[in-house]
Amino acid sequence: MKIATFNINGINTRLAGLLQWLGEARPDVACLQELKATDAQFPADAIRDAGYHAEWIGEHRWNGVAILSRSEAIVTRRGLPGDPRDAQSRYLEAAVDGVLVACLYLPNGNPQPGPKFDYKLAWMERLNAHAAGLLATGAPVVLAGDYNVVPTEADIYNSRSWKKDALLQPESRAAFARLLEQGWTDALRERFPQDPPPWTFWQYFRQAWERDAGLRIDHLLLSPAAAERLTDAGVDKAVRGRERASDHAPAWIILD
Q1: What's the domain count of the chain?
Q2: Where is the active site (predicted)?
C-alpha cells in the first residue's frame, strides 16, 4: 500500500502536474495540502477520471486538505479537535483499506513572535493530544502532511538565513519531538538515517531549487502497527523541477 503526501500549492493551478504525478507514481492514497480552493472549486471530476475517490475540505484562497484514494475512504474526522472556534481547513482523517490516514496542514506560524506563531503552537498541542488518542487504539495510523517544522539542523541545507523563521524555532521543534516521543516513527528518517535526508521543499526564490537548498518539512509519521509494515519510503524529487511545479515534492511510504 503506497501512501503519499503532497503540498500541491494550489490544486487548480497545478492540476496538470498533479494528474501527471498520479499517473506515474500511482499511490493508493494521496494526501494533499494547500488546495487554495473552496469546496465547489475542487476538481472532483478530473480526480475521478484519474481513478481516485476524493474527500476534501476547501477554503477560499488559503489552506484546504484532501485525501485521494483508489479504494473508497471512510471519513472519520473533519477538523482537528480541541478548539471549536478554529475554522481553518487543515485536518482530514479517513480509514482506507484498514489503515487510518490523517492528512494535515500545520500552520506556518510566521511572522514570529506574534498571534500566528501562537496559533501554530496551540495547533501543535491539539495535534499531539489527538495523536496520543489515535496511538492508544493500537490501529495502524499514518499522520501525513506538511508539518511546517524542520525537526533538526540535519533537515535543512543551511539554517543561517532561517534563524528567525517559525519552522525552526525551539518551541516548534520541541512540540514535534514530543509527538515522536509518544511512539510515532518518522518514516523518511527511518528509511534514510544518514544526514542529510531527502528534502521535500525548495523555495521559489534565491535559486533554491537550482542550488538544492532544500528543507524537510513534509513528514509521514507511523504508529507502531503501521511502522512494522514499512518496507520503503522516499521523495519524488523530480516533480519539483517540472514546469509550474509546487515548491514541495511528494513524499511517500510503502506498507506491506
Answers
A1: 1
A2: 105, 146, 248
State whether the Cα torsion 19-227-150-106 is positive or negative.
positive
The whole-angstrom separation of Cα 68 and Cα 54 is 5
Instruction: Please pick, among 28, 52, 91, 105, the residue that the annotation labels catalytic.
Output: 105
In the block, cell 506574534 appears at 114
- The CA distances from residue 124 to 6, 43, 101, 104, 144, in Å, are 20, 30, 18, 11, 14
210 is in an annotated binding site: no
pLDDT in tens, 167-199: 999 999 999 999 999 999 999 999 999 888 999
Active-site residue, 53 included: no
Residues of the chain short of pLDDT 50, as ranges, are none
pTM score, whole prediction: 0.97
39 labelled ligand-binding: no
Catalytic site residue from 52, 91, 130, 146:
146
* 248 flagged as catalytic: yes
34 annotated binding-site participant: yes
Q: 149: domain CATH number?
A: 3.60.10.10
Domain region containing 101: 2-255
Write the single-letter amino acid at 66. Answer: A
Please give the C-alpha separations between residue 2 and each of 29, 49, 54, 80, 222, in angstroms, as whole numbers: 6, 20, 16, 24, 13
